[in-house]
What does this fold into?
Amino acid sequence: MKEQDLHHPVTIGNVEIQGNLFLAPLAGYTDVPFRSLCIEMGADMTFTEMVSAEGLSRDGEKTMDLLKRAENEQQYAVQLFMGATDSLEGALERLAPFNPTFIDINCGCPVPKVTKTGAGSSMMKDPASITEIVRTITRTLPIPVSVKFRTGWDANSENYLEFAQAALDGGAAMLTLHARTRAQGYAPFADWTKLTTLKGYCMQKGYQVPIFGSGDLFHAQDAKRMLTETGIDGIMFARGAIGNPFIFAQAKDILAGREPQSIPLEQTVHVILRHLDLMIAHYGEKSACIQMRKHSCSYLKGRPNTAQVKQAIVTATKRDDYLQAMEMLHTSC
It folds into this structure.
């Protein structure tokens, strides 16, 4: 593939996405404000936080809130997780009015409170379960289904090709591999060679589904490296986008052969306040200011002489507190 073609549209089932740089679903982070901001900053596709199929089937208020769409989200995907299919049909009935572009099934979350219910990466222990889930969704709703999974439960059970086949047997229109086992969690390093193997397997079997990769994408140049080294179709920025929504535009520059723009302090301050204002509009001032603390500290990570600024932020409860902290940032950096 030519360098200038590394950023390109992607077809998922009957849907075309304008580009192949996605914001991965991240519990506690990819809410409406952050997704909206990442779209402004160049993300081609966004996903909700993990949505419980059981909670959705019960019409749970907090669960339904996760399905809200940002005003600039012309396309978005809902990520579902479940330990069994009992509640799936009810969940799909409540999901349909939200008109997601496609549904993603979480088979990769390694967190114990998720895996102990049989959801997340626990599903990799039973590949037949993903066939049933994908088949049920594709029979119920006229939208594509994608599956996000890991290389296996642990080093002794790396069954990602078998699991991919099971998902494809159910009718999956896209696969995303986080190139670590569940046992590895998020420890270094992701094995990108597994992405190459998965892509080759699907091509050999004649499947024309896009393969996306995740894992160790912390810098804009990592997007080019993953795409060129593995031959996959697209990437999902996850932790690399936290406090760094600039990563999408920078990656597009690199994929187009341009020098990525540097991010001056003024732009960082502007985006922090833009992010805060989006959160205030969504949550109200006090809740937004408390939730914004974790994001703000991520924006400032690695910048020298910011300890006092971060201390001010972690006690902020009003927008004015953030304005004062940003003034402090100007004088300290």
The mean pLDDT is 94. Residues 86 and 150 are 24 Å apart (CA to CA). The beta strands are 10-12, 15-17, 21-23, 45-52, 77-81, 102-107, 145-152, 174-181, 211-214, 234-237. The radius of gyration is 20 Å.
